[in-house]
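Encode chain A's predicted structure.
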Amino acid sequence: MKILVAIANYGYKNQEFVEKLIVSYQSMPAELDIVILSDVPKKFSKNVEVVVGLPTKNPWSLPYAHKAVFADRKRYYDLFIYSEDDILITWRNIDAFLKADAILNENLCAGFLRFEVDENNKISFPDFLGPYHWIVGSIRRVKNETFAQFSNLHSACYILTQNQLYSAIESGGYLSKPTTGKYDLLCSAATDPYSRCGLTKLIWISKISDFFVHHLSNRYVKEYGISEDELFKQIDTIMDLKDKIQQRELIEPQKELNTYIYDKMYFNETDNDLLNIISPKERNILSIGCCSGTNEAILVNKNKKVTAIPVDAIVGALAKSKNINVLVPDLSEAFELIRDQVFECIVIDDLLHHFKDPIHILKKAVGFLKNGGRIIISIPNFRSIRNIKRTFPYPIFKRFDYDKNKITALSVSQVEANLRKEGFVIIEKLYPVQEFKKFRVPALFGLNEKLLSEKVYIIGTIACAGSVAN
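Encoded structure for chain A:
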């Protein structure tokens, strides 16, 4: 077997990692050539080729240089490996990829997950952050093995067979100019085979440890990611989901936009703005659209009773492990399970705009609120300067189409008007702009919050909740 490896190495910061990669590759039981892509001439170990030059003036375009190298040499190798200069791909990884390729269809491609190690030798997985999550409906069984898609296509590396490379090139997307979208230039170079070339990246769930690649710099270990225990809680859940009924999702989480700003945040940071809104007197809380349970767990630790409707069963397993009463990821079924209950506070965080008819969902939820109870709703501020800039011409000159974009551009006035119809007598609004306090922004007659805040909280107090929703 002949393997061509291309490693992107900008500057001199990661030289020690590059040398480790070279030693590892050259020890493998295969006929293997290594190409280092660099911005300037460099010297490495013997039998390593250095290709110098940037595809564009942007330094971040360097990773794209590997595509021309692969295309020019596509006839001479069986396997093509691309990685950034701090990703250690082992022979175990390559062997696992080949075994996966033997049982998958040609347009299905086995992929990898990055891991990092902290000073205490604890492993974490940095690619689990923000909106990135297991796509429940993608779970498939192939020859008694389980595969699934992970929504974060970036692992700073990929492997393609010769046939897969030919297919990617023929798609027209592989050799296109460096571009950004949902991923920046650095990341899009490693994700284009899946995002633009028709290949589907799958993770081999039942053999997932064989597809871990070490991010040698460990640069995100203190910033974000999930623990090994949290990963395997999700893996166990995936293995247990036997049918389509169990593989439901509360919402369509990913949007047909070149940005992630309106996607549901599955692995969110602690939301102190939200937590500060909840009163110490509110003890019995319903969270609709719960993900990993970060905020809900804090409430539980304050001796509050939290019932949660999760976005799916996989991430819901993490919330369940935090002593949260987790229901099913289906509103009709979940509402039926709690039909005899009322709550002092209902939280609908970053959820309503994911539905085609959010007002219908809001009306259903209100029926579970006790007299004098409060509902806390957060939605994107579609009119903020940053959000408009990221999605222009939406929503100024072009309307979101739910069937295409999976977004309903819900306004604050719409939510407020419908809450009043449902009997809410006090309605407050909060536009958090803490991140802008370091800038000296003029008050603009109170408009600065509405223009700068990317999110808005709407808090309603009901006078008479009425009967429980049907």
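The chain is about 30% helix and 25% strand.
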